Automatic annotation (TrEMBL):
NCBIfam families: GGDEF. This is diguanylate cyclase. Its EC number is 2.7.7.65. PANTHER family: DIGUANYLATE CYCLASE DGCM-RELATED, REGULATORY COMPONENTS OF SENSORY TRANSDUCTION SYSTEM. It catalyses: 2 GTP = 3',3'-c-di-GMP + 2 diphosphate. CDD domains: CAP_ED, GGDEF. It is an enzyme of class 2 (transferase).
Length: 312
């Protein structure tokens, strides 16, 4: 972070939330405590591992907020006029998130030593700061709710769910298209599962679904994505494999379940299950829906042909 010379623009600054309704004369005085700094793209401004002493007001560029790890998708992007670091600036603690310059940026930075004096000078700025803090608390609560309600994991099997499939498909299909490599999809459905539930009970059905999930997942490569698509349906994405290479893999998965004629569960020994599989390869600019529709019709054909088989 480099200190730079900066030409004050009171008009622009009065638009920032922190300075809303602060009288121009007062604002000019307050600004003497701020230092302008330039940030390079990717520069870490705040990290949970470093105690923060500053409040940052973004003048130009973009700051990205990451939770947990810098590699996670940002949960928020801060734009000019917005602040960062206000919570840790006030409680003199470590920030709870990473804040990273998403592009070359300019910030105004205020050291916490100046805080008490400044707040005494401008109760309006204190009120603005409190409002910013309230907004951050509400944002945090929304993120918690969002995470709980839309988690990407299926609680029964521990596999990713359909929501994740939508996310991962964008990434994998783009990557494969860019590298001019194929991508295949297997859609699996447990055979006669209604009868299995009716005969052995719904809980037994749940254990059978877990058996399918764990048996198949353990045979896949890390880059393959297996998701629980719906009740007794699963979708597997096989990046970098065309139909001809994906077919023996699907067949191997099918046989591995066929060979488990019974398994241990907390309910005692239960019979195994078989699956029917539909196979489809991504076409140019295939949407997820398009690819699913073709894998689904191949699955329908596998069912028509007698179940416990692969079609496509
Ligand atoms: N135990 C259990 N059963 C589920 C779950 N989700 C869906 N099911 C059941 O899966 C069954 C699916 O039945 P159907 O769609 O008729 O299909 P099927 O009996 O497998 O017949 P085919 O697919 O044609 O072989 C329904 O009875 C659902 O209640 C679940 O999470 N746990």
């Amino acid at each position: 972070m480099k200190h730079i010379k900066w030409q004050e623009d009171l008009q622009q600054l009065s638009q920032a939330r922190l300075f809303h309704n602060v009288a121009p004369g007062n604002l000019k005085r307050l600004l003497t405590e701020f230092r302008a700094c330039a940030l390079a793209a990717g520069e870490v401004v705040l990290s949970p591992f470093n105690r923060n002493q500053h409040l940052y007001l973004l003048l130009a560029g973009r700051l990205d907020v990451h939770l947990g790890s810098i590699d996670n998708t940002p949960v928020a992007n801060l734009m000019p006029g917005e602040c960062a670091g206000e919570i840790s600036f006030i409680d003199n603690n470590c920030p709870s998130a990473y804040v990273v310059a998403g592009e070359p940026s300019t910030v105004l930075r205020l050291h916490r030593d100046a805080l008490v004096g400044l707040l005494r000078q401008s109760p309006q700025m204190m009120q603005n700061l409190l409002e910013l803090l309230c907004e951050r608390v509400r944002q945090g609560n929304r993120i918690i709710l969002d995470t709980e309600q839309h988690a990407n994991i299926d609680t029964l099997t521990g596999l990713y769910n359909r929501r994740w499939l939508e996310h991962i498909y964008v990434r994998e299909s783009t990557r494969c298209a860019f590298n001019e490599s194929p991508l295949s999809m297997l859609m699996l459905d447990v055979d006669h599962f209604k009868a299995y539930n009716d005969t052995h009970g719904h809980l037994a059905g749940d254990y059978a679904l877990c058996l399918v999930a764990h048996t198949l997942r353990s045979q896949l490569r890390p880059k393959d994505s297996m998701t629980r698509f719906g009740g007794e349906e699963f979708v597997i994405l096989l990046p970098e494999l065309g139909e001809n290479d994906a077919r023996p893999i699907g067949e191997r998965l099918r046989v591995s379940l066929e060979q488990i004629t019974s398994f241990y569960s907390p309910l005692g020994v239960l019979p195994g299950v078989t699956v029917s599989i539909g196979l489809a390869q991504m076409r140019q600019r295939d949407s997820l829906q398009g690819l699913i529709a073709r894998a689904d019709s191949a699955l329908y054909q596998a069912k028509q042909n007698g179940r416990n088989r692969l079609h496509g």
